[in-house]
Amino acid sequence: NNLSIFEKNLQMNFIQELKWRGMIHDIMPGSEEQFQNEMTSAYIGFDPTADSLHVGNLVQIMTLLHLQKCGHKPIILVGGATGMVGDPSGKSKERNLLNEKTLTHNLNSVQKQLNQFLNFDCGANSAEIVNNYSWFKNFYFLDFIRDIGKHISINYMMSKDSVKSRLETGLSFTEFSYQLVQGYDFYWLWKNKNCKVQLGGSDQWGNIVTGTELIRRIGEGKTYAVTTPLIKKADGGKFGKTEEGNIWLDKTKTSAYKFYQFWLNISDEDAKNYIKIFTLKNENEIKQLILEHENAPHLRLLQKAIAEEVTIRVHSDEDLKTAIKATSILFGKSTKEDLKSLDEYTFLSVFEGVPQFNINLADLKLDVADVLAEKTNIFLSKGEVRRMIKSNAISVNKEKISQNFQFEKIDLLSGKYILVQKGKKNYYLIIAS
Q1: Which of 29, 87, 159, 232 falls between 20 and 30 A from 7, CA-CA?
Q2: Mean pLDDT of the region 293-304
Q3: For the residues 116-130, what does the mean pLDDT come to?
Q4: Are β-strands 73-78 and 128-131 bridged in parallel, bridged antiparallel, or unpaired?
Q5: Mean pLDDT throughout 266-285?
């Protein structure tokens, strides 16, 4: 039965799929043959230091998605134990260590997000989640250094780039020992789950190779490693970071609108790269899209294709519709009904950073010029308000207003907001309470 699933997908070569998508950085000899010869279990470790994954994790999640599509079994290792230690790779300083309660909450949240991408109930190649705390919690320190530590020399551990780069600034024994702990994860999965490949980002190569070395020395086994390149932006900036910080997959941390906007705003050069990495479109579809994009770059076809597919996969069809509607409210034509249809969280997300003014509910009974000039200072004077109304340049909740306009409680969005627009691009938010 295992073979039938694998054979059905044999025409889809996992390594070739990653290669044309630009998703391979390092590959251990024999890895491609391993995937071609049999249905293979492969794993990636995820850091549980937050209760949500972010777009920086998407490369690894997509790697697992391709792995499963090609008939292999994805194993997701969430580091309940290693989250208490801290990996020095790619870090300039020691990170905060977490307690067990926080880690458990984070692990449960991360698992829900992975359900959006991977099939956990499809037979032999179902995705599986393991937590390394389950095999480390009863492992005594003396047993670990006696049974595992003796197999890897200090010279070997010191030769790793992740260690060498930190020697000048300082590296604790805790972080130094991380590669042994991660190496043991691979050994445990090889021994107990027949896992033969570890996947990860290129900064993990040293840790992964330590695992293959442990398996060779302790179990005389042969295992493999494949890493993806670290994704960078064409301008050299860090992918997935904005001025506000990470773009999270949890919409209570990053709204679906902001998530959609993140992909919509990537550069043309980045879009040609990201369409291969973050969507499941095939090579011909992507070539065609790039061609259409180059013929009319102002339409941002590549960015829209990425934004739509990734938003649906991470969130839902409904969230995509909301994000598109919210985008048209800010950048295109929309109506008062469109504005009213947004939930408060999305509404505030769209108009984040817009100048805000607080008034009392009773102030709504005042003349419109009094509200916009004296109660809020949106305009310099009541005369300016009247002149701009006359020239049809003021909108309230996306509708142009006339001289005899009067604010009403019914105008309040989510029961407390009024959106004022001066000209085409200047928005202001009145909060009545």
Answers
A1: 29
A2: 96
A3: 92
A4: parallel
A5: 96
Chain segment 180-239, per-residue pLDDT in tens:
888 899 999 999 999 999 999 998 898 899 899 999 999 999 999 999 999 988 888 878
Whether 92 shows a pLDDT value over 80: the answer reads no
